Automatic annotation (TrEMBL), chain A:
This is Ornithine decarboxylase antizyme. The gene is TBLA0A00460. It comes from Henningerozyma blattae (strain ATCC 34711 / CBS 6284 / DSM 70876 / NBRC 10599 / NRRL Y-10934 / UCD 77-7). The lineage of its organism: Eukaryota, Fungi, Dikarya, Ascomycota, Saccharomycotina.
UniProtKB/TrEMBL annotation, chain B:
Its cofactor is pyridoxal 5'-phosphate. SUPFAM superfamilies: Alanine racemase C-terminal domain-like (SSF50621), PLP-binding barrel (SSF51419). Keywords: Decarboxylase, Lyase, Pyridoxal phosphate. Pathway: Amine and polyamine biosynthesis; putrescine biosynthesis via L-ornithine pathway; putrescine from L-ornithine: step 1/1. GO terms for cellular component: cytoplasm. This is ornithine decarboxylase. Belongs to the Orn/Lys/Arg decarboxylase class-II family.
Amino acid sequence: MDIENYKSDYINKKESRLINSLLISNEYLKEIIASSDIKGISYNFPIQNLIKNKNKRLHNGYGLDNIDDDQFFIYSLNTSGFLDWHADMHDDITPHNDRSVTDSTELDQHIQNYWDIIQNTECQFLSNSQHFNPENTINVSPQKIMKLFQRDTVSKIGSLLNNKKLDLQTIKGLLNYSSTSWKNPCFNYSIIYLPEYFNDSLLYAKYDSTYNHVILPIISNDKQIAFNSIINNLKNWLLCLLELTSSSNYNLKFLRLYINRNSDKYLIMTLLRNINWINGKLIPNENNLNWLSSPENSNNIHNNTNNNDNALAYNDENFIILEFEC
Amino acid sequence: MTPELSVVNTLNNSSRFASPCCAAHSALLPVRDENFQIKNLFIYKQPSHRCQILQISKVSPKPHSCAPPPIMTSDTLTMSKLGQEQLLTETLLNHLISKDIATPLPHDSNALTLQSHKMIESALTSRLSSTESEDSFFVCDLGEIKRLYQSWRIHLPRVKPFYAVKCNPNQEILKTLRDLGLGFDCASRSEIDTVLSLDVSPERILYANPCKASSFIKHASEVGVLKSTFDNSDELYKIKRFHPNSELFIRIATDDESAQCRLSTKYGCHLDQVDSLLQTVKELELNLVGVAFHVGSGASDYNSLYKAIRDSKYVFNRVEEMGLPSLKVLDVGGGFQYHSFVQAAEVVNYSLQEFFPREAFSELQVIAEPGRYFVSTALTLATNVIAKRRPNNDNTSSMIYVNDGVYGNLNCILFDHQVPTPKILFHSNSYHYNSATSSDHCIPDKIENKISMWGPTCDGLDCIKNNYYLKYDLDVGDWIYFPNLGAYTSTAATQFNGFQQFSDFIYIDSEAAYN
């Protein structure tokens, strides 16, 4: 099994677990999903929530006042008569804001969900380094690559969270930083569930203070995804994502949409054909050779003590990237 | 010599047309004489090279010109032929081309365009000879835009253009259009902000994005842009909430099957939805001022224009019948192209006269959203050959890589279904600008170098041209140019993204030079 197939299995397994854990196992959400008035659900969290201990969060300078906890958002008709995102504050899904009274098993489940979402997001950009660096002759199995990937992801997120030298000002600065690139881990991750258009496939997203990077599932004619619905409702689901990105909870300026190149060509061409009309831009893929040759990234690679780490590579070649102003 | 002014425009006689579609197969042929200033001389070309001179807005001798020569070639095209039909022979066509008075457009060898090739060539060659830079660059003739506006005024006197900024948001182009008095059709907050930063008042802006998030509407409200389109009730509720003073245009769907970029499959309400939307407008007490439609970018079937104006009249009637205030504006959208502008204008004029006769609708304001019409022929892109590969390891074909592509200034290939025509600019230490035989789509007798042309990204999407033929076997370092590449090309070069594509622009103004 090559890395792409292995990756796909890896994502699917985690996705099934996420849907079950976050959406299906909750009676209230099950009701919401069944309601025809609800067009979408979004679940997001800041990575600080990965720190189990509230005292440690405070010690690390994150505070509690200016950090949002994880939250469900619902896309439905508001009182003004139009579809809008709003936070759902129902007790059954209001997450563990007070960790001191939260059951530790439940907390562990939340932490597991966080990591699943982060890894399913970052995993989409994982590639075998030999793909674009043929000189790398290390032959590493897909299983090994995925293990390396998990370790690498935990390390990157951990380095953001565990830097005790950061003062509050720096933390605030980090929280406001703006990353145009898919490469960097973000301070917030989310899943978006739009069953009317994408059936049971989740959209993964990460965001900072400016960009919301949203990854669409592979959309093709032979998949379970409602292909015609996606094509015919392009404006509706795109508007839904634009509203989410610009909503007061996110308040971001740009939506970046990652469309898998294995998706149906007709969908891709339809999106591109209309892109000027809906104020979108095509963003070039990053030049991986340039990225690899940059001193900073080169050091990252060469500083790895384990040669197997050279097998890990991230790139965006699998995606056509569109950007929309919000 | 006293300048002579003469205008003949037989196309105003709408009785010539049994139906709007009968104007097909004609082309606008503006020409310029090198010795005389002849501005806005249009000859109306029909099949079999029959042509008719329609108008000359101004004729005057060039300053310091010695002899008073006749207009172009005295034996073929003279002032005495003005308004008369005559045969446009191959000889005359070749003569116009050889004298650099006109040049064939890429896709229609019978169509001619008014371009100042001497100035464009001079700008291109000066740039190449003065710098070692291999970056691609545009030559932008602002004079072409001014001439096209004059042509617009002649052919569509009832219609005020709101330039579609998305088509090319270059600031010098926007300033030129601002100074000419155009309005602006904006699709985003950044486009609105750009136009406002040029001291254009918000009244001159139409916000026509068909997919507006709440934040867009809030922004329009903040900056005082009132004119806005809608095609669904959700939008109306948002507008009521965030911008209740908007001057609204109901956008109706059209038959856009022939358009280069079809829009109505996604945008615009169908006529059976009109009543419901008007009812919502009434209930929300919103300010509906007009009807808008768009037949699609690059439309070629003029029946859709006719039908859309007819359908607009239906909406005007329904508004009256439902007791809403009378509408004041009709927006006939865009889709106008240079080479078919005259025909499209005829259909618009004809249809307006049929459904909104000037006598009965003297207060009606008619606007349009043209984009490519104003900029397509005004820009020429020059790119450098950066690599070459022989995929079959022989001399039968080459893959040519240039330093611009679909992710840069040639994104019109993906977004706009354009088919740009590469031509050889510099090869083997010689310039080849405007050589009619340097390239061709088909296999010609003497053009033997089969190529495919690619952008620099190594991406399968980044294909500029396939199965194409060039006169010369290009080498790395040679230069290619793409004429008529002003529409939907440099939009990727705008602000706000992390991969800014900086394009150098060389501006010329052939109108100022001639004047």
